[in-house]
Amino acid sequence: MSVMWTVKVVGLGVVALSLSVELVGWLLHRLRPKRTRNEVLFFPSKMACINHIFAPSSPQLCFCPLPHGVETSFSRLLRCILSASSSLDLCVFSFSNMDLSRAVLTLYSRGVTIRVLTDKDYAAITGTQIGVLRKAGICVRCDVDSVYMHHKFSVVDNRLLITGSLNWTRTAVQSNMENVIVTEDPDLVRPFIKEFQKLWLHNDPARYPYSSDPKPAHKATTPRTDKP
Amino acid sequence: MSVMWTVKVVGLGVVALSLSVELVGWLLHRLRPKRTRNEVLFFPSKMACINHIFAPSSPQLCFCPLPHGVETSFSRLLRCILSASSSLDLCVFSFSNMDLSRAVLTLYSRGVTIRVLTDKDYAAITGTQIGVLRKAGICVRCDVDSVYMHHKFSVVDNRLLITGSLNWTRTAVQSNMENVIVTEDPDLVRPFIKEFQKLWLHNDPARYPYSSDPKPAHKATTPRTDKP
């Protein structure tokens, strides 16, 4: 009898131990803090060839004079943008950088849904890429209410936020001190998705059918000391 | 004998159960993802009285015509800045907002260590608060290398990062579409602390003792299409 009891106790102990190990493993897996993608890029970026980023699956020899195979802040930024597989929502004050324009056009040619929201005044300055995007068929809307639509953010696939001080210009990338945050943290991504949607709907041209220049009058009188 | 065994088994079972509960509780406590402070503020901000934020412990009656007791993006921003208890590192392109200047001066009067890094050209424009801060004794350095020192970030107590598209100007706060991220996520805060330290040391006036205007010549020739 006592031998049987001993066997039962040992058996129960083994079962309890294995269940405990299972439980601890499950808890560790479920409760371990997940690493959210968070990256900060600083500019000006070093200059390097970025041609290979546009066609990583079929790399071609490039004979441009820039260094090759060098990872820079700008190449990281380009990779983030080009990672879009379904959508890119872009909300940017000034857009004149031709490499970034090429990235947006590349995504568009791949069937990615692109929405661009920009400042009305800066959409028309010399060197802007907004006209190039429009001609390609990309949907662009201009802010009609504020003094400046001064955002510089984009959201990739409703998942990845790219935001900071960097306008999409050549000077910003190559010459200015700038920062860009790249994050998948939902606490940060969600408000930007919501804000984009709000601004996109608010600046629907159908809401302003009879105005050729719906910018408020106070924009022209903004003191120059308060440049954006 | 069998009764003794039963008692022993039940006793062991109770001990094992209580230990398991303890272990599960400990694991839950240790492994639960910690809530990192993450907040996004959008501008333009509604206008509201902010006087009570500067002296929360001794609120005084205010008869200004603005709405009172209203929480806005700007009041949230002010509270974040005024939460500094030991240091405020500020790296901003344009600084002309008098309420934000008041906040920095308030912190300085409380003994908080303030370091301000700004763009050389924008430090001298009409309406700038940089001269006011300098006169008060706050240490200000100007960027000497880049075309524009275009950052708009600050770090409170080496712990809280405030960054975005918002320059510290009246127009940015009241009239522009802008965003500000407030975060304690170390993955985001640490790179900005490091970048500030790098820029602060790099722009030490002692490194440029003989130059009255050490800005690079190319700054003046930057094409206007690439405004920051």
- Look at the helices and sheets of chain A and give the structural class: alpha/beta
The neighbouring-strand order within the major sheet of chain A is 1-7-6-5-2-3-4
Pair with the most extensive interface?
A-B, 70 and 70 residues
CATH class of the largest domain in chain A: Alpha Beta
Strand content of chain A: 15-25%
* Number of domain modules of chain A: 2
| Arithmetic mean pLDDT of chain A | 88
Cα gyration radius of chain A (Å): 26 Å
Total helices of chain A: the number is: 7
The number of distinct β-strands of chain A equals 7
Morphology of chain A: elongated
**Largest sheet, strands/sense/barrel of chain A:** 7 strands, mixed
CATH superfamily of the largest domain in chain A: Endonuclease Chain A
Following the backbone from N to C, one meets helices and strands of chain A in this order, namely: HEHHEHEHEEEHEH
In helices, the fraction of residues of chain A equals 25-40%
Low-pLDDT runs of 5+ residues of chain A are 220-228
What oligomeric arrangement do these chains adopt? Answer: homodimer
Would you identify the CATH architecture of the largest domain in chain A?
A: 2-Layer Sandwich
User: Terminal Cα separation of chain A, in Å?
Assistant: 88 Å
